[in-house]
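Reviewers of the previous submission asked for a worked example of the structure-prediction workflow described in the proposal, so we include one complete record here. The input consisted solely of the amino acid sequence. No template or homolog information was supplied to the procedure at any stage.
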Amino acid sequence: MNEDKILVIIPAYNEEVSIGAVIGDVRKNVPEADIVVVNDGSRDATGSIAERFGVPVLHHPYNLGIGATMQTGYKYA
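From that input alone, the workflow returned the following structure tokens.
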């Protein structure tokens, strides 16, 4: 029995136009993976759109950059 798990961390900043397609592509190509979106202080609807796709979304109160965003994802994992 394989107990390894895959978590795809999607860092996102003002990606309301593409976040749905990214989540869909991950689900299509890596269906066994869990997904978390780290919304890095977006000023648009990125976070709420990702939530509508049923994935966990972690929200930064303001933009912290890619390093901090990935660290948030790693801590979640």
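The two ends are 21 Å apart (CA to CA). We consider this example representative of the routine output the project will generate in years two and three.
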